[in-house]
Amino acid sequence: MNKAWKYGPAWALLAGLLVLGFATVPALAQDEDDGGDLEALLEDVGEQYARGYLAPLVTGMGANQNSGLFHTAAIPGTRLTVSFGLKAMGTKLEDEDKTFQTAERVTLDERYGIDPGDPRYGEEGTLVMSGPSVFGSEDDTGTITAYYAGLPIYSAEGIESLVDLDYVPLVMPQASVGGVMGLQATVRWLPDIDAGDIGKIKLWGFGLSASANYWLPMLPVDVSVGFFKQSLDVGEYVATDAQSMYLAASRSFALATVYGAYSKEESSMDVAYTYTYDDDGTDVEEEVNFSVDGIQDSRLTVGATLNLGLKLNAEAGFGDVTTYSAGLIFGF
User: How many structural domains comprise the chain?
Assistant: First the structure.
């Protein structure tokens, strides 16, 4: 039996996963009539609202960046290897990620319909903000309500979601060079591509991995350790950083390699923009600048790479969130 035909079902499964990963990305580049762009939306809300609204973006992008870093733990010790590929990844969003609710204490004044002379003027109230997150339902709009002594005294609209997604997607090129003393260097990049309403995306990352088998050739499986560091700019207002340190093991068979890994990771998002609001007929600008950490700090990864001339790779990462990744790899 022809080997390519024999492994056809596995090839089709992995190819389908890769196509699915790439197909989710255009959802971010929706028509302008479907909603506002991310930067314009943020300019209409303050820091506390933005923190809740953007939470799934930092978690999803950070987990995506720390996915698909390798497709095998085997690194030759004395034979040069060069590879180039495309990686697609998506982090699963739960229903609770699509909405948010947050609150903060505020001083009641004209912004909340309380004029000087009112006995409530200058008193402390509670501002409750809720609605769809950046990846929530496109049929809803957020609300902002001020309370005093438990009673609502002011209400305003929040902002709509950017796009309704079940997965936060990301696609990027990746290139690796290895084979010197069991070391391998990898780089990732995206050169300012337009992702529609989310804005321009630019990514740069690098990593280094080392083969344990180069120093311990008696190991029964291939083992490597590595780290990766990346930065991703989302438009002009949002930037995410991600780091990962991992221990991976793999076993190669005739046409496939299976692997697993444990990694410690972290991610963060820096947000900076100007919030403009109306204060009794006067436009007031307020500088917003804050950082948010991603929720995932470790993961277990399982994956497989099919080698039929080119390599087709798929993996799943399990931690505080679940991330799927697929890739096409060319090289020698």
Answer: 1
For residue 226, give Cα distances in angstroms to 62, 63, 70, 125, 248: 18, 17, 10, 50, 8
pTM: 0.85
8 A C-beta contact, residue 183 and residue 209: yes
| Residue 75, in any domain of the structure | yes
Q: What is the pLDDT along the chain (332 residues), one digit of tens a residue?
A: 444 334 444 444 444 444 444 444 444 444 444 445 889 999 999 999 999 999 999 989 999 999 999 999 999 998 899 999 999 999 999 999 999 999 999 999 988 989 999 999 999 999 999 999 999 998 889 999 999 999 999 999 999 998 899 999 999 999 999 988 999 999 999 888 877 777 788 999 999 999 999 999 999 999 999 999 999 998 889 999 999 999 999 999 989 999 999 999 999 999 999 998 877 677 888 999 999 999 999 999 999 999 988 999 999 999 999 999 999 999 87
Specify if 219 maps to a domain: yes
Q: Which amino acid is at 65?
A: Q
- Residue 310 sits in a domain of what CATH number? 2.40.160
**Domain span holding position 260:** 3-40+62-93+166-273+294-331
CA proximity to 63, closest of 236, 244, 219: 244
Would residue 149 count as lying in a domain?
no
Task: Look at residue 74 and tell me if it is in a domain.
Answer: yes
